[in-house]
Amino acid sequence: IRCWSNIPFITVPLSRAHGKSFAHRSELKHAKRIVVKLGSAVVTRGDECGLALGRLASIVEQVSMLQNQGREMMIVTSGAVAFGKQRLRHEILLSQSVRQALHSGQSQLKDMSIPVLEARACAAAGQSGLMALYEAMFTQYSICAAQILVTNLDFHDEQKRRNLNGTLHELLRMNIVPIINTNDAVVPPPEPNSDLQGVNVISVKDNDSLAARLAVEMKTDLLIVLSDVEGLFDSPPGSDDAKLIDIFYPGDQQSVTFGTKSRVGMGGMEAKVKAALWALQGGTSVVIANGTHPKISGHVITDIVEGKKVGTFFSEVKPAGPTVEQQGEMARAGGRTLAALQPEQRAEIIYRLADLLTDQREEILLANKKDLEEAENKGRLALPLLKRLSLSTSKLNSLAIGLRQIAASSQDSVGRVIRRTRIAKDLDLEQVTVPIGVLLVIFESRPDCLPQVSALAIASGNGLLLKGGKEAAHSNQILHHLTQEALSIHGVKDAMQLVNTREEVEDLCRLDKLIDLIIPRGSSQLVRNIQKAAKGIPVMGHSEGICHVYVDTDASVEKVTRIIRDSKCEYPAACNALETLLIHRDLLRTPLFDQIIDMLRVEQVKIHAGPKFASYLTFSPSEVKSLRTEYGDLECCIEVVDGVQEAVEHIHKYGSSHTDVIITENEKTAEIFLQHVDSACVFWNASTRFSDGYRFGLGAEVGISTSRIHARGPVGIEGLLTTKWLLRGNNHVVSDFSEHGSMKYLHESLPLPQRNTN
C-alpha cells in the first residue's frame, strides 16, 4: 500500500529496465510509466465545437484506475482549440444579438453569421477551461492533476529540457497526473516534414510528435495513442479490402497506404505512425487505438494495458511463424481444398494419421512424459487434470481405432444430398451437406483431443485452428506434426493449424471474420469464459456436466451398484460422470440403500447431503452448498425425491442438460423419464459414461453439446456439417410463375441417391 495526501491505493509489482520496448502485448501489463495521447477527434464533439464530456470522463476514470494501481500516468491532450471555439462562438453570438437587437430589430437575428475563428485565439480562450474540467474530473478519484504547456523550442533549449524533465519527475513522484499540451496560443505555423530523420531529433509540430518526444524523454514504458480509427490498416479504412494490422514492425510502412487526416487536428495516421516508430526506436512500446467507439472507449486504455488485442501494437520483434490471422486464412484456404478432395482421399489421410499414432508411439509418449514431469514439478495441475494430460499405449491404440471408425464412416459425409425437390419442369433443387468452414477448438490438458478433432475436421472438410493448453505443449506439438504429415499426402497440410503464439483465448474469440464455430473442450470455467468472450461467433459445447442418476423403487439390486460405481468412479473427472444421485424416498433405510452407501465408501467417494436427504438423518454428511455443482472428482451429492416426476423436476431445475439416467425395471416409469427429461442424453439402466462419441459409434467427438440448435449430445462428423442449396434450371425466371405466367410450381419430392454404405 502506498499513500499520498492520506489516500491509500493498491500498487501492483511493476519494474522494468528502460531501453528496450516490450516484444509482446502480454508484457504490457508490466508497464510502469504510461503516456496517453488523446487526439482532437477523441476529445471533441462531432460538431467540433466543445468537448465530448462523456468520453472524456470515461478516459479520466481509466487513467485514475491505473494511477491508483501504482503506475505513473501522463496525458498529452488536444481539445483547447475546440473548447475555446465553443466559448468564443458563444461570446460572438451574444455580442451580435445585442447589437442587432439595438440597431436592426429582432427580425434580423436569423441572418447572423459567425466569422472564421483564428486557432491561436481559440486555444488561448480554451486552455484554462480545459484544465479546469480535467481537474474537476480527477478530483472525483482523489487524484491531483497539473498542467504543462510546451512548444518545440522548449525541447531545443537544453536548460528548458532539463527543467521540463525535472518538473515531470517531481509531479510523478508526488502521485500527480501531468496533463501536457502544445501551447497553441503561441505555436508557430507547421514546419515542413523534415524531422524524424534520426533517433535524436523530432520536431514538436502536433500532439503526436509531442507525445513521442515526451515518451522518449521521460523513458516511458508505453505510449497509447487514441484516435478515431481502430488502429493502422493495410489500406485506407473504409475501403473494401482494408484489414486492421494487429502488430506493426519497423520497415512495414512501405507496404501501407495512408488515408486522409481525421476531421480535426494537425496530424493524420502517417504522422502517428512516424511518431510511433520514433518512440519505438527510443525504447517505448506504442499502441494506436480507437478512443471514440462507444462500445470500447469505456475500457480501451485498461484493455491495452492488460495486453488485450486492441488497436495496432508496434513491436521490434517479429514472430518466427505466421500470425494467428495468417493461420486463420491458411486454414480457410486449406479447408476449401480439403473439402474438394474425393471422400476416399480424405479417408486415406485419416487412416494414415491412425497408423502414425501407433508407429510413432515412442516419440509421442516421450513428449507426453516431458509435459507430465513439468506439470508435476510446477505443481500447477490437480490429480484429475494430470490424468487427462497423461497418454499411454492403450490410449493411443484406442485413438487409432476411433480414427479408423471415422475414416470408414466418412465416405459420403460432404456433398451428401439430403433433399431433392422438383420446383417446376427442368428446375430441380437439392439440399447438400457442406463443411461449416473454419473451426476453432480450444482444449485443456487433453492432448488426445488433438488427433480426434483433427480427424473429424478432415472427414467433414473443415479448416481447423487448434489452441491447446501450455501444460500439454510438447504432446500437442508432435501430434500436430503427425497430423500435418498425414495431410501432406494430398497437399492440404495448411488446413490444420496449431496456434502457438501468445494470443489470449479472449482475443481468439474476437476473430469473427476468420472463425465460423468455436468448440471449447475443458473445464466449465473455460467454457463459460469462451461463451462470454465470443463476439459474433457461435460456441458449441456445454459449460457444465451435472449428470444425475435416479434410483427408482423398482430398481434392480444387481444393476444399481454397478451403474452408480461406473458412472461415478470409472473416470470422475469426465464431464459425463455422475454428480448427483437421486434416491426414491421409499428406498431410505433399506438394504439397497445401505449397499449404495457402502459401495461409495469403499470407492472413497465423499458424499454431500442434499437438503431433503439431510432432514431424514440424525447425523448427516456435510450438507451440499449448491445442488448445481460439478465436482469432477470422487465426490457426489445425494438427494431424496418422492418419485419419477419430482426427479424430472429436480433435473430440470438443477441439471445442465447433459446426461441423465434412470435405474428401474418398470418400463412405464422408464418411458416417462426418457420422454420428459429435457437433456441431450437420457438413458435407462445404463451408465452416464456411455455419453461419448466413440461409444456411440461416431469414432470420436469434438465435444458434447447441450445447445438446442444444430447439434446436441456427442458431436461427430454430422455436427460439423451444414447445408447449402443447389438449383439447376434452364432459362427460368420468376415472372414466368406469376398469375398470368406460362409456368406453374410443382414442388414434387424426388428420391434421394443411394448412400454408400460400404
TrEMBL record:
Q: Which reaction does it catalyse?
A: L-glutamate + ATP = L-glutamyl 5-phosphate + ADP; L-glutamate 5-semialdehyde + phosphate + NADP(+) = L-glutamyl 5-phosphate + NADPH + H(+)
Every Aspartate/glutamate/uridylate kinase domain range: 32-290
Task: Spell out the SUPFAM superfamilies in the cross-references.
Answer: ALDH-like (SSF53720), Carbamate kinase-like (SSF53633)
- What residue stretches are annotated with the Aldehyde dehydrogenase domain? 324-588
Please give the biological process terms from Gene Ontology that the record holds.
L-proline biosynthetic process
Key words, A-Z: Amino-acid biosynthesis, ATP-binding, Kinase, Mitochondrion, Multifunctional enzyme, NADP, Nucleotide-binding, Oxidoreductase, Proline biosynthesis, Transferase
Highest taxon above the source species: Eukaryota
The record's annotation in InterPro entries points to: AceGlu_kinase-like_sf (IPR036393), Ald_DH/histidinol_DH (IPR016161), Ald_DH_C (IPR016163), Ald_DH_N (IPR016162), Aldehyde_DH_dom (IPR015590), Asp/Glu/Uridylate_kinase (IPR001048), G-glutamylP_reductase_CS (IPR020593), G5K_ProBA (IPR041744)
**Pathway, per UniProt?**
Amino-acid biosynthesis; L-proline biosynthesis; L-glutamate 5-semialdehyde from L-glutamate: step 1/2; Amino-acid biosynthesis; L-proline biosynthesis; L-glutamate 5-semialdehyde from L-glutamate: step 2/2
Task: Indicate the principal place this protein occupies in or around the cell.
Answer: mitochondrion
GO terms (molecular function) for this protein are: ATP binding; glutamate 5-kinase activity; glutamate-5-semialdehyde dehydrogenase activity
Q: Determine if Electron transport is one of this entry's keywords.
A: no
Q: Which GO terms describe its cellular component?
A: mitochondrial matrix
Q: Does the keyword Chloroplast apply?
A: no
User: Which PROSITE patterns is this protein grouped with?
Assistant: GLUTAMATE_5_KINASE, PROA
The entry's function note states: Bifunctional enzyme that converts glutamate to glutamate 5-semialdehyde, an intermediate in the biosynthesis of proline, ornithine and arginine.
The record's similarity note reads:
In the C-terminal section; belongs to the gamma-glutamyl phosphate reductase family.
Per UniProt, subunit arrangement is: Can form homodimers/multimers.
Q: What is this protein called?
A: Delta-1-pyrroline-5-carboxylate synthase
Species per Swiss-Prot/TrEMBL record: Podargus strigoides (Tawny frogmouth)
| Taxonomic lineage from the root | Eukaryota, Metazoa, Chordata, Craniata, Vertebrata
